[in-house]
Fold this sequence. Notes:
Distance between the termini: 30 Å
Radius of gyration: 17 Å
Number of strands: 11
Shape: globular
Helix content: 25-40%
Structural class: alpha+beta
Largest sheet: 7 strands, mixed
Amino acid sequence: MVNWSTAKPSLPLKRLCKACNNGWMSRLENEVKPVIESILDDKLEAIDALAQLILARWAVKTAMVIEAVDTDRPWFYSETERSFMRDTQTIPQRTSVWIAKCVLHPNIYSAAKDLQTSLDNSGVRAFATTMAFGSFAFQVVSIKTPAEIPATTGVTYDVSDGPWNQTLVQVWPESEKPLVWPPPYGLEGELGLEALTERLSPAKRLYRNDK
């Protein structure tokens, strides 16, 4: 299991080609910039379907880039998934994205957890990336299953106790209706972000749901 986090990260990445950095990644950053700025400036009141999609694509792209910091282990996201993100901004299957509001957190925070399952759970695994800067936080969770498990088979996981429904706003899979922002609760400081990171620790047990 990989488990790393930092409150003040230095992320010198040399794996991004100039064409990507100045091309599709730059366009995605420009698309998400007004949405995130409105969140940071406390001007956003609702997140429509297009804004949800933009936030989700940007968050997944960022998760893939952050993963490149660790060069000593195999990456969770495959070359195919990265290529689809680059070429068509396609979000990997069984990926969920949430955003949250931070309180009293002026710094940058990032953390990743590679969540393995036990042998009796058919080799299902998940990868969670959590990041925050200022009053904005997001979490990306992607789940992978063996090839013999159909794409239509649902996979669920345990979540730690907490007011997550009042703290997190799920932007992917997207909702056709605008989402209310901000949520009733916020994440207080680094402790709140650590709680968000650890909320998926029970996900060492993931379950198939054929119903």
